[in-house]
Amino acid sequence: MGIVKDILYKVSSKVFLPAFKNQSIFPYYHIVRDSQVDHIENLYAFKNTKQFLNDIAVLTHNYKSINPKSLLENKIQKNNLLLSFDDGLQEVYTEIYPILKEKNIKAIFFINPAFVDNKEGLYKHYISIIISNLKRANFKKSSLDKISDLFSFSYHNIEEFKQKFTSIKYADKEKVNDVLKFLNINIEDYLENYKPYITKEQIQEMINDGFYFGGHTMTHPPLIQLSYEEQKAEIINSIDWLKHNFDINYSFFSFPFSDKSISKKLMEALIDYDNNIKIFGNSGLKKDMDDRIIQRFSLENPTKKTEKRIVEENLYKYFNKVIGKYHIKRK
């Protein structure tokens, strides 16, 4: 449906935005930063602080920002806004938190406990670090060949190499460490020097200031590549980790990568775990199997205007209603 959304974005206009304010929206981001960084730059584009501040101005002009507590108390109304941020990157503390605090906007931050305090990192971030190092070495062909052989893929150009390398299976993530060693990249030094992820101390400070945290799995795997029991453990353990370490009594969770292939059985297991859990997907403006499952859309793309993105998502909602895909059907 990428072509459809591209067309809808082109025909969208901010003048239509007032027509789509009779609902609540749940936009999300990962990072806000004014410069590139190795562990992100080869994965996705993101907004700088000026662009994020503009987003905040647009969103709060058109929607009423609410406290996540209202969500837990089932007090969501029409025209509400609730921001969330995935992956627990350092910038949620250094860049996003001060802005939200100044604007008196509360939000939910979803974290992967395995990466808190920077003792280890996400394999996708390691891949981006590797690609940045390869770039600085002018993509030496012998290095590319060795890596492609290790992961058993072929490539015809550098862009295809990057696409295939960033798409490796979760089961092959340990091989990424072999590449780090082969290229003499000291990942422990990188984690120590750049501190890509938030720390326990920072999480506690933000909680003390009224911000909310949720699980995002322990290690950020593509859940579709795991067994049902592994999926359930990754999710529930990440929520329990927050409860144990920060004495919180609520359950928030957002799916990494995508919720599109998540089974009805797993959703029901999470609801059984906590009847008041709030589960966040990223399928846009859609209706899920249960009101405790909340669908979000990303505002991260720096090349797209926020007003047009909101209109685009609403137009896409009506398109999905027409073709019978507005209601998510889980098997």
Description:
The chain has 331 residues and is α/β, with parallel strands linked by helices. Helix content is 46%, strand content 10%. It is built from 14 helices and ten strands. Strands 6-5-4-1-10 form a five-stranded parallel β-sheet. Strand 7 (252-254), helix 13 (264-273) and strand 8 (278-281) form a beta-alpha-beta unit. The protein is globular, with a radius of gyration of 20 Å. The mean pLDDT is 97.
Brief overview, please?
The protein is of the alpha/beta class and 331 residues long. The chain contains 14 helices and ten strands. The strands form three sheets. It has a five-stranded parallel β-sheet with strand order 6-5-4-1-10. A three-stranded parallel β-sheet has the order 7-8-9.
Which helices and strands appear, and what pairs or packs with what?
Layout: H1 2-11, E1 27-29, H2 38-41, H3 49-62, E2 64-65, H4 68-72, E3 80-81, E4 83-86, H5 91-103, E5 107-111, H6 123-136, H7 141-150, H8 158-165, H9 173-182, H10 187-194, H11 200-208, E6 212-215, H12 228-246, E7 252-254, H13 264-273, E8 278-281, E9 293-295, E10 297-298, H14 306-323
Parallel strand pairs: 1-4, 1-10, 2-3, 4-5, 5-6, 7-8, 8-9
Helix pairs in contact: 1-14, 6-9, 12-13
